[in-house]
Amino acid sequence: MAHSILLTGPDRRRSWSDDERREILAEAFAPGAIVAAVARRREVSTGLIYTWRRNAMRESGAPFLRALVTHDPPPADKPTPQLAPAIVVDLPGGARVSISASACADLIAATLRGLR
Predict the structure, then answer these.
(1) In whole angstroms, what is the distance from residue 8 CA to residue 28 CA?
(2) Which SUPFAM superfamilies has this protein been placed in (predicted)?
């Protein structure tokens, strides 16, 4: 079922307050959310949601991630050195996160959760 919105008057574009934008972004990027479904429900284009997100990330500056330091005992066998990282994530602004294959599973999971 299709519907359309007719905007009349001098202001032909819809506008959202900063609070509405933050609410829509939180809903769209919540774990398990589907951006397209949120966009349809809120009557916003998906491209506009991604633009808001990009602008919000740019305005907030470089995000700081919580670090978890563990004091694991050294492994009994010396691991084979890895020549190349197993996971490489390029971030906006040229930053890069590299994770070697010898990293523990908890560290990898925490890093990837922090990058979300």
Answers:
(1) 29
(2) TrpR-like
Nearest CA to 44 out of 10, 9, 19, 16 is that of 16
Triad 77, 82, 88: Cα angle to 5°: 130
How many structural domains is the chain composed of?
2
- Helical (H) or strand (E) element with 111: helix 105-115
Of 60, 50, 8, which is closest to residue 25 (Cα–Cα)? Answer: 50
Q: Measured between alpha carbons, how far is 46 from 40 in angstroms, rounded to an integer?
A: 8
For 3-38, the pLDDT digits (tens) are 776 666 666 678 899 999 999 999 998 889 999 999
Q: Are residues 50 and 78 in the same domain?
A: no
Please give the residue range of the domain that contains residue 51: 18-60
